[in-house]
Amino acid sequence: MPSAASPARPALLVVHAGDRSHAIEPERGVVTIGREPQAGVQIDDPQISQAYLRAEPADGQWRIVDSSPDGMFVDGLRKTSITVTDKTIVRFGDPAAGNALTFEIVRPPKPIERQDDSDEDDGVIQTSEPDPGLARAGAAAAARRRELDISQRSLAADGIINAGALIAFEKGRSWPRERTRAKLEEVLQWPTGTIARVRRGEPIDEAAASAPPAEHAETDGPESDGAASLIAQAIVAAVDGCSLAIAALPPAGDPEFIERAAPILADLRQLEAIAVRATRISQITPELIKALGAVRRHRDELMTLGAGAPDAPLAQRLYAARRRANLSAEETARAAGVTEEMVVRAEADETLPAGVSDALETLIGHIN
Asked: What pTM value is reported for the model?
């Protein structure tokens, strides 16, 4: 049983403004929210002051503080500060009709050492290695949830699985415990054991499953198309999480940029590897092409930004330099007098022999 003295886990604060969302990580400390360009979260809304709100993490929670004279209203009442526990709607100017921001807490799944089937903690078992089967199961559950028009928030509100654990499962990063899977299967109108069977690569028993609404039905295709589509959906879901993480990064000139961007780049490399493997074992579908393109666009964006950061590592500087020169990895290797494998390893931020690093640094100098 967890100790009562265990510290609260940090939570991600997501700010929804219209059709845009902004993720704030607790490591950023106090973040201002307003219209000023220097705000940590910039909101383009004339009803929001230049520097309006402060988001402050404390003891695993987030506190929103109103620093303007205009007024912050929650449930019709004027507030100077609030603690966000799950989802909170804040209005400005008018307590009933004023423009609103929605603050939502997303907690990462807690690492679990025990591998039993108890319902402790978040009901998930963490995984450290990419698992195409887990990604396939998570994508299938996400697709079924959308078919039945079930939101992630409603599953959390009904006590089926918390939002952070569900997001991690649908991204293929965690595996729900048996009891949690059973509850999910009941809500998704699937026979017991379906999620585990999908992970093993077995087909869903459509005859036993309740039919989704007709407007969501899809035409059956080849089995390989279905597998590729599920993998593509899992990748897209994971890329959405990466997008939020990228949005929460400090400017490239910030000394913390490289350290905080590193795990995102690692995730993008893993997603790219999964997508590439899928193109080799399944028919290349339009969904898979779009998913792979999205991963590579985000990686290109982050690698290019990182190249301009203080003390940028060789990986980002090499990538940006060869892109400026329109060189392929093979052409870069020939120009530096090294193997193409060394260029690939360098851009994956892997350890290289000293001579290879020196050769690549020399080439970057020539290009720049």
From this structure: 0.41
